[in-house]
Specification:
Blueprint: E1 6-11, H1 15-26, E2 31-37, H2 41-51, E3 55-57, H3 60-64, E4 71-74, H4 81-90, E5 94-98, H5 105-118, E6 122-125, H6 132-142, E7 149-159, H7 177-193, E8 199-207, E9 213-223, E10 227-234, E11 236-240, E12 243-247, E13 251-254, E14 268-272, E15 275-279, H8 286-300, H9 308-327, E16 331-332
Parallel strand pairs: 1-2, 1-4, 2-3, 4-5, 5-6, 7-10
Antiparallel strand pairs: 7-11, 7-12, 8-9, 8-16, 9-10, 12-13, 13-14, 14-15
Helix pairs in contact: 1-8, 4-5, 5-9, 7-9
InterPro entries: Gfo/Idh/MocA-like_OxRdtase_N (IPR000683), Gfo/Idh/MocA_domain (IPR050984), GFO_IDH_MocA-like_dom (IPR055170), NAD(P)-bd_dom_sf (IPR036291)
Keywords: Oxidoreductase
GO molecular function: nucleotide binding; oxidoreductase activity
């Protein structure tokens, strides 16, 4: 096996890139960050100095034209995901794009089709799925350790409501709690159940002060077999991100389901017969695991565990959730 590393370029200095993804790539085994672009060259240079990134660019186009760049990471606001993913694909770059992949399923389908035609890899950046604990949890479910799954409950909430200029509060830019954090419980339920939902019903609280986006939403995602995900998401309530799988014989409890900033936060619990047993999980950087899985796909042809079509399915559910919340009605999903 070659010791070559995947060479990354980053479009923009968004907080998620600077605080999480770039450090994760740098800590991984098969990757290196060789360039960063910003419409503000000084901002790109500042980030480059912090992480010892050798190349900076004063425009996204310049980075995409660089033949030394193999893959690009796109942490731009949601409404720019489609445009710059397509441009990156047309430049022959592999793309890791922040979630949600697009503003709607139609955009996502065009992105996937473009990547397939160009022969490049496209992936949506749900880093938590690459941590081995989700493989453990799914194996526990599939072995029947908690009996038959009766339902899943999950949430992802935080409070950023005072930052009125935040991009999350721009409706046309893909703002709102469902786009930003509601997508996490949805992907987790699909992953653990191994199936797609049939219908969604969502109630949301919209705020005129925050660009008429959904500041909080609570929903019921119905799967076949009368199993459902009950979830809530918020951008103006206290932080939490739990997940619970309720079985006929036991419960899997994940106190911190999507972010694991400390060694203890990654552990989960199995509750059966009034006994609560901790399942210890290694303290691993999910962003590094995501980068290495991507690099394995590009450099060595190993299939990604979550292909780009998965993002299209997820966008269809997000579309339905937003429509349900806006129209105050149940939305059925077609095959």
């Amino acid at each position: 096996m070659s010791d070559r590393k995947l060479k990354w370029g980053v479009l923009g200095s968004a907080r998620i890139a600077v605080n999480s993804v770039i450090p994760g790539i740098l800590q991984s085994d098969l990757n290196e960050v060789v360039g960063i672009a910003s419409r503000n060259l000084e901002k790109a240079q500042k980030t480059a100095v912090k992480f010892q990134i050798p190349k900076t660019y004063g425009s996204y186009e310049q980075l995409l034209q660089d033949p030394d760049i193999d893959a690009v990471y796109i942490p731009l606001p949601n409404h720019l995901h489609y445009e710059w993913t397509i441009k990156a694909i047309q430049a022959g770059k592999h793309v890791l794009c922040e979630k949600p992949l697009a503003l709607n399923a139609e955009e996502a389908e065009r992105m996937v089709r473009s990547a397939n035609e160009a022969g490049v890899i496209l992936a949506e950046a749900f880093m938590y799925r690459y941590h081995p604990r989700y493989t453990q949890i799914k194996e526990i479910i599939d072995r029947g350790e908690i009996g038959e799954v009766r339902g899943i409950r999950s949430a992802f909430t935080f409070n950023n409501a005072n930052d009125l200029n935040n991009v999350r509060y721009q409706k046309e830019w893909g703002g709102g709690a469902i786009y930003d954090v509601g997508c996490y419980p949805i992907t987790a339920a699909r992953l653990l159940l191994g199936k797609e939902p049939a219908a969604v019903t969502v109630q949301a609280q919209f705020s005129s002060v925050h660009g008429d986006v959904d500041m909080m939403a609570a929903g019921l995602i119905e799967f076949e077999g009368d199993v459902s995900l009950q979830f809530d998401c918020s951008m103006w309530s206290a932080f939490r991100n739990p997940l619970e799988v309720l079985g006929s014989e036991g419960i899997i409890e994940v106190p911190s389901a999507f972010v694991t900033p400390t060694e203890e936060s990654g552990h989960f619990y199995i509750i059966k017969s009034d006994e609560k047993n901790k399942v210890s999980v290694p303290f691993l950087n999910a962003y590094s695991l995501q980068a290495d899985a991507f690099a394995q796909a590009v450099l060595h042809g190993k299939p990604l565990p979550f292909n780009a079509t998965d993002a299209v399915h997820n966008m269809k559910i997000i579309d339905a959730c937003i429509a349900s919340a806006r129209e105050k009605t149940k939305v059925k999903l077609s095959e």
